[in-house]
């Protein structure tokens, strides 16, 4: 059988790294992306993966990633993201330029990467896993900018699922996790579960090839 291939963005730490670790244990070929080259190279060496450091908001970097999986892609995980302005501001104080940058990373880059690797995904009837957040639908003070980017990603994911019925498209909320991003948001990350806890739940989507749609790690853990 052909070895399954996954491309994971933001894979040097947190949820991206946890997903890579789970897939590596299952024998997947991994192509990993992150902006920090040193941390990415360390992670890739431990997992026997290919590391391609760069910014997913860069068209040139996305072209490198697409070339690495041109032979066929079973799973694209759009995990790389940014909070935008920190400390998280009220919308009345939201710097619009910062919000534009957040949309570039959290919305436009995932869409552009999907476009770049669609031929490879179609070849394998592959899957797209877009990492979203409950902030996409809930009104949390300070989370308006970030939540708006995730709401946009949710909508793009839903339309992609309809337009590409041969693929699986999942947009999934991992819930709170003990990550640097949660700390940067000013939340108590130490009280949150590890990223590995969420990764194991989210990969039930892959293992069961569940229907396209929106999921949460909490709901996936509750499934029999």
UniProtKB/TrEMBL annotation:
Alphabetical list of InterPro entries matching this protein: NAD(P)-bd_dom_sf (IPR036291), Sc_DH/Rdtase_CS (IPR020904), SDR_fam (IPR002347)
Enzyme Commission number: 1.1.1.276
GO cellular component: membrane
Top-level EC class: oxidoreductase
Record keywords, A-Z: Oxidoreductase
GO terms, molecular function: serine 3-dehydrogenase activity
Family according to the record: Belongs to the short-chain dehydrogenases/reductases (SDR) family.
The protein, known as: Serine 3-dehydrogenase
Organism: Actinomadura rubteroloni
Source organism phylogeny: Bacteria, Bacillati, Actinomycetota, Actinomycetes, Streptosporangiales
Gene: sdh_1
């Amino acid at each position: 059988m052909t070895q399954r291939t996954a491309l994971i963005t933001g894979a040097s730490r947190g949820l991206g790294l946890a997903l890579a670790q789970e897939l590596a244990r299952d024998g997947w070929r991994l192509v990993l992306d992150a902006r920090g080259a040193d941390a990415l190279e360390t992670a890739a060496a431990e997992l026997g993966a290919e590391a391609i450091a760069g910014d997913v908001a860069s068209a040139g970097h996305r072209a490198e990633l697409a070339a690495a999986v041109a032979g066929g892609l079973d799973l694209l995980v759009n995990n790389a993201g940014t909070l935008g302005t920190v400390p998280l501001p009220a919308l009345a104080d939201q710097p619009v330029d910062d919000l534009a940058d957040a949309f570039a990373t959290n919305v436009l880059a995932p869409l552009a990467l999907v476009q770049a690797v669609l031929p490879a995904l179609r070849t394998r009837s592959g899957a797209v896993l877009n990492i979203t957040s409950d902030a996409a639908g809930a009104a949390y003070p300070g989370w308006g900018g970030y939540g708006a980017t995730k709401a946009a990603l949710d909508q793009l994911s839903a339309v992609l699922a309809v337009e590409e019925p041969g693929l699986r498209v999942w947009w999934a909320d991992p819930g709170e996790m003990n990550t640097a991003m949660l700390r940067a948001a000013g939340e108590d990350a130490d009280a949150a579960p590890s990223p590995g806890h969420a990764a194991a739940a989210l990969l039930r989507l892959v293992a069961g090839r569940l229907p396209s749609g929106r999921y949460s790690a909490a709901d996936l853990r509750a499934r029999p």
